[in-house]
């Protein structure tokens, strides 16, 4: 079977599928055995089986001893109902090596409504599953509140950060030389992966410090208006790249100088702004600073980070600040992230006697409200 493009040149569907970078399978839905009738080269590279070995076989040959029977049952039910399904399953290569497979299956119907084929697209997510398992183990260790275990996590992540910084440096140096477009693409992917891993290491370090009670809060003078301006400038390149408007507003009643921990406050606002930009495809992100209340030498500021992004379902809001939690698995896959950032924000604010709250409407955006009590400095010299 072929289709016609605007130049009336026939294109074979086998040719199109063979050129995809994803593993693709086509199953005959009209046969009770539901055999494979086509696989592309990416499938054979992923599984180790040849085209001739798999065509005519049911996909169950990819299953093995540790494949979850419940997962297999869900797939069979979806096929029997002729429904789409997206699911993770543990599969085996021809050599017997395990790999985690993100499986996406869609039925194909003819004009009369008869299901003719099932088209499957597979992704090897073994590395992600391994990372998730490591994070879950780290979370369990943190929940045990074992000082010895948390000390180990801190030391391990310190050791990881040094070679990671070296790898990132070498990637940058290599990208400065004369390289092809393909090599540039590979280096960009390597850099992005390195940055994501470095972020996980840094977050894990903070979690370890918080769990061991070694996170300290400073009380130093800083300029809140200047601080939020600097923070917004830091995130302008990311917002500009996504064509998202980034704005900052401040109440002019905010004092020029206050006493608190600007480093930890910046860490919180950086995380909230980074998330807001990441989850906003179009529209605007706003950082707003207001005076909530004043009592003598104490003043409570309200920082609000608003976006017009994908929003968060109401039933997911209660678990938003739990460690290693994503509101949607597909969001983790699409946008990345370890699920630690908001947890650290909440812990840091509690250390500073502050608080964080969230309100959101799916499809319309999210508002994070950070309240933070600070001390007013009565007489500060050399302040412009």
In short:
With 384 residues, the chain is an alpha+beta fold.
The secondary structure category is alpha+beta
| Percent of residues in beta strands | 25-35%
**N- to C-terminal distance:** 75 Å
- Secondary-structure element order, as H and E? EEHEEHHHEEEHHHEHEEHEEHHEE
Helix-strand layout with pairing:
Elements: E1 2-4, E2 10-12, H1 13-18, E3 23-28, E4 36-39, H2 41-47, H3 51-54, H4 69-80, E5 85-92, E6 98-109, E7 115-124, H5 126-143, H6 147-176, H7 181-212, E8 220-222, H8 224-241, E9 245-250, E10 258-260, H9 262-278, E11 284-295, E12 298-307, H10 329-335, H11 341-351, E13 355-361, E14 365-376
Parallel strand pairs: 9-11
Antiparallel strand pairs: 1-2, 3-4, 3-7, 5-6, 6-7, 8-10, 10-14, 11-12, 12-14, 13-14
Helix pairs in contact: 6-7, 7-11, 8-9, 9-11
